[in-house]
């Protein structure tokens, strides 16, 4: 049995000290109430992208230091090299190999707190950018590439879809040799694309960098339009000038993230376990595709109704409102992977002390085991439910503020009704999948 399959979340819902029906109803009511409160009290746009309080000059100097950036890139590249080496030269047993834990737990889930708390840090230390720069120096190629990078986030959406399929569906996904091959293949393809299209490829086509950078829009640390580093209201980073063109492919990225996390919850419900073969790649693939398609259909359908009610351009609305989906993606990720990161993430540190199974004890972690007392059931339950509810409320706030920028308050409220209905439905569905173990 794949240990990582069992490690996601708590591995079961029956031990959570919650009344499922009460939590589901309460969550839906909270999101609906937040919408009606917004219509009464939020009559004009309040999320200003040009707002924020400058951070102390010393902190900004350190954050922008070339030495700090170089050190971060060196650490990230060394970590990548260690994980790849451990994948191929370390123990064949996935339970004792560093690579699966480093990829699926520390990196994939760890990008969330790193980006949300510290901003677009990954973009600065991305080891693929470092490898690309080194290749350009060795081959004397122009880092800007031979042609402009593709517009929109569609390549990143494709990469993220492939990764969540690997994480949630693919057989033998925790096999260290497979993990090593996936990491190397991903690096080669993206560095090659950047050599052709230029370094701008990473901002559009590197799924992990795009994912981390989008999450960083909700960070309390951001850049003022004039370039200063400022403290800001987290949702401010989701706002855009209505005159700017919609962000192509961003809605696809958000729907992949929301749909895949929802599918992860569905696979651990009693219904799925009793009716579907957990090892069926076909069932898993179809289920993942259906979850992403359903989220996409709900989103696009709601905006089509919004366009009909307000007279706004239906073709432009999905791209304009796509950033408002990011708090939902964040909420779902926290709900499903909080305990996974806090508990199973300890394995990365434990195994890093002996990455090749040679009997080393580099970090003094030899013989250590996961401390499950770090995340008691009540704490996990509170984080899971509140993450989903607050994520939808934050998305409702951001969508309402954006709607006020696109038209007068009366039309904005009317147009937000279908979006609010979808938010309530997704909240209840998310909590149902989370709590029906």
What keywords describe this structure?
437 residues, transmembrane helix, 3 strands, mainly alpha, Fenitrothion hydrolase, 20 helices, three-stranded antiparallel β-sheet, disordered N terminus, transmembrane, membrane
Q: What separation lies between the terminal Cα atoms? A: 19 Å
- Tell me roughly what share of residues is in helical segments: 55-70%
Determine the strand fraction and express it as a percent band.
Answer: under 5%
Number of strands: 3
Q: Can you tell me about this structure?
A:
It is a single chain. The protein has one domain (3-435). 66% of the residues lie in helices and 2% in strands. The chain has helices at residues 3-7, 20-41, 57-63, 66-89, 98-107, 111-118, 121-125, 127-139, 154-168, 176-197, 200-205, 207-215, 250-266, 270-275, 281-310, 317-321, 326-344, 346-352, 377-406, 409-435; strands at residues 53-54, 221-223, 229-231. The protein has a 3-stranded antiparallel β-sheet, with no helix packed on it. Strand 2 (221-223) and strand 3 (229-231) form a beta hairpin. The protein is globular. This is Fenitrothion hydrolase. Keywords: Membrane, Transmembrane, Transmembrane helix. The chain crosses the membrane at residues 20-38, 70-89, 101-122, 178-198, 279-301, 321-343, 417-435.
């Amino acid at each position: 049995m794949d240990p990582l399959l069992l490690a996601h979340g708590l591995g079961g819902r029956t031990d959570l000290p919650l009344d499922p029906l009460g939590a589901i109803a309460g969550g839906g009511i909270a999101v609906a109430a937040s919408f009606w409160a917004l219509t009464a009290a939020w009559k004009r746009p309040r999320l200003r992208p040009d707002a924020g309080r400058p951070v102390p000059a010393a902190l900004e100097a350190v954050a922008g230091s070339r030495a700090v950036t170089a050190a971060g890139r060196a650490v990230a590249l060394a970590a990548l090299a260690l994980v790849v080496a451990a994948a191929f030269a370390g123990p064949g047993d996935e339970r004792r190999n560093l690579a699966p834990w480093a990829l699926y737990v520390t990196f994939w889930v760890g990008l969330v707190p790193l980006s949300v708390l510290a901003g677009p840090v990954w973009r600065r230390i991305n080891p693929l950018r470092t490898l690309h720069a080194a290749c350009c120096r060795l081959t004397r190629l122009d880092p800007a590439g031979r042609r402009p990078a593709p517009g929109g986030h569609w390549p990143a959406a494709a990469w993220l879809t492939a990764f969540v399929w690997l994480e949630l569906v693919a057989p033998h996904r925790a096999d260290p040799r497979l993990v090593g091959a996936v990491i190397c293949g991903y690096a080669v393809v993206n560095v090659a694309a950047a050599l052709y299209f230029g370094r701008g490829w990473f901002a559009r086509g590197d799924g992990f960098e795009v994912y981390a950078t989008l999450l960083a829009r909700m960070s309390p640390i951001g850049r003022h339009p004039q370039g200063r580093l400022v403290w800001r209201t987290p949702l401010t980073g989701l706002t855009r000038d209505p005159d700017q063109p919609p962000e192509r492919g961003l809605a696809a990225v958000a729907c992949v993230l929301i749909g895949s996390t929802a599918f992860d919850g569905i696979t651990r419900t009693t219904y799925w376990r009793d009716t579907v073969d957990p090892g069926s790649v076909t069932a898993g693939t179809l289920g993942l595709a259906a979850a992403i398609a359903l989220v996409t259909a709900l989103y696009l359908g709601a905006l089509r109704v919004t366009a009909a009610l307000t007279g706004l351009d239906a073709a432009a609305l999905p791209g304009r409102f796509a950033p408002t989906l990011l708090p939902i993606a964040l909420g779902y990720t926290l709900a499903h992977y909080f305990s996974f990161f806090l508990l199973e993430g300890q394995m990365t540190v434990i195994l890093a002390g002996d990455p090749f199974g040679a009997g080393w004890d580099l970090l003094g972690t030899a013989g250590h085991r996961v401390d499950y007392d770090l995340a008691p059931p009540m704490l996990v339950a509170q984080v899971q439910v509140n993450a989903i509810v607050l994520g939808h409320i934050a998305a409702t706030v951001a969508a309402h503020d954006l709607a006020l920028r696109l038209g007068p308050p009366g039309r904005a409220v009317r147009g937000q009704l279908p979006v609010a209905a979808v938010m309530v439905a997704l909240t209840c569905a998310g909590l149902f999948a989370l709590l029906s173990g």
